[in-house]
Amino acid sequence: MSKLLVVGSISTDFVVETKREPKVGGTIFGETFETHFGGKGANQAVAAARLGAEVEMFGAVGSDVFGERLLDNLKKNAVGSNHVQIIKDAPSGSAVITVMNGDNMIIYVAGANDAYTPDCLFQNQQQIDMLKQSDMVLVQNELPQATIEKLIDQSYQNRIPVLYNPAPARKLTEELMKFITFLTPNETEFQEMFPGQSISNMLEKYSNKLIVTLGQNGAQFHDGDKIVTVPAIEIEHVVDTTGAGDTFNGAFAVAYMEGQTLEECVRFANKAAAVSIQKSGAQNGMPSIEDIPNLCNR
Length: 298
Ligand code: RIB
Hints:
By secondary structure, this protein is an alpha/beta fold.
C-alpha cells in the first residue's frame, strides 16, 4: 500500500446555504445551516485514505470539543493521527462557508493550525522516519509559511516527491519551486501567484510540474511538448463544490504513488472531484475506489 504523509490544517466547517448574498448592514433568511469536518489538510488526507492510500497526518487541533471530534473523524477515516498535536489554550481551526448555487465562499480562521510552527515538524526520529518512508508528501497553505518551507526542504533532501496545493494562494520563490514535484493552483490562485502572467506561458515554463485546475473546464498541464487539457466530468446536479479541490489533490496523490502517468493522475483526480460535489460538506461526497466511474480507464 502506498504511504502518503499529509501535513496541513484540520478544521470544522460552519456552512450556511443561501439563495442570495446579504447587503452590507442587511439581514436575509438563509436556507440551511450544517457543521462538517474540514480543513484542506484533513480533507486531502481523508480523500486519499478513502481511495486506498495509507495516510499519516501531521497538524494541530485545539484542546476543545471540536478538536476531539476532529481527531475522532480522522481515526474513523483511517487517517493516522497519533502525531497531530493538541494545542493548549487555542481554539481548533474553523471555516465559515457560504454556499450559493453550489459554489462556495470561505472565511478561514486558523486557530490551532497557526500554532503548527516549524519546531513542531520532525520533532523526533519516528517522525523523521515517517517522512523517509513516505511515497509522497502532500501540503497546502493553511499552515504557517515557515512550516511549509521546512517541510518542502526536508522532503527534497530526502528525495520524497512533494505535491503542493497552494490554497489559499501565497507567492512562491523560484527556489522553493525547484523543490516541488507538482504545484496545483486553481485559476484564482494561479492569478494571485503569477500576477500578469498567462496560464499557457507558466505551464510551459513549469512543464510536468504546474497543473492548473479550471473547475468545469477541467485541468491543464504542459507535457514538455504541448499543453494537455484534461476535461472535467459533467455533473448534472452539483450540490456543493466545497472540498472538490481537496478531493482532486488526494486522488492525484494516490494515482501518482501507484505509478500512473501525469495525464492519468489528472484524469483520475477529475473523476474523484466530480463524484465529490454531489453531496454537501467537504468530506461527505469523497469517493472510495468503487465509486469512481470507468475504473479501467483511470
Ligand atoms: O477546501 C475546502 C476547505 O477549505 C474547507 O473544508 C474549509 O475548511 C476551508 O479551509
